[in-house]
């Protein structure tokens, strides 16, 4: 039941994202941002779903995309170099978020890359706000369990002797 409620909330988020992108005529940014929403829904505590990681990855890759579109345009070799640079940059600054790399290609084909970048940044901030709201709502509906937290089982004692039990007893 908890997973169904969480997925329903995030599917609503994808629909809101689609409507916002449709209103601004920026449908090209929907696939990477929808992939971000799926990562946020699948594992809210995961390494790819940290809000700081998501925001920083989109900002860094967006700046590289703007740099590429202003100076080199839609050159395939430059896109290849920028993709390598983006992956290296995201690995150096620990903020790896795979869907953010797609923004490089979206910005290189956009007629107005700066406007696309600003709309993408606003949509990412909206997605993260929706993520926090969905986490809050989920915690209010299911207060007994935090999402993504698994209680640790106590270790069972073994009947086989180990090195540590021999040291402790001997």
From TrEMBL:
Keyword vocabulary terms for this entry: Membrane, Transmembrane, Transmembrane helix
Residues spanning the signal sequence: none
InterPro entries according to UniProt: TM_HPP
One Pfam family per UniProt: TM_HPP
Keyword Electron transport appears in the UniProt entry: no
Domain HPP transmembrane region: 5-129
Membrane-spanning intervals of the chain: 7-23, 29-48, 55-73, 79-105, 117-137
Domain of life: Bacteria
Protein name, per record: HPP transmembrane region domain-containing protein
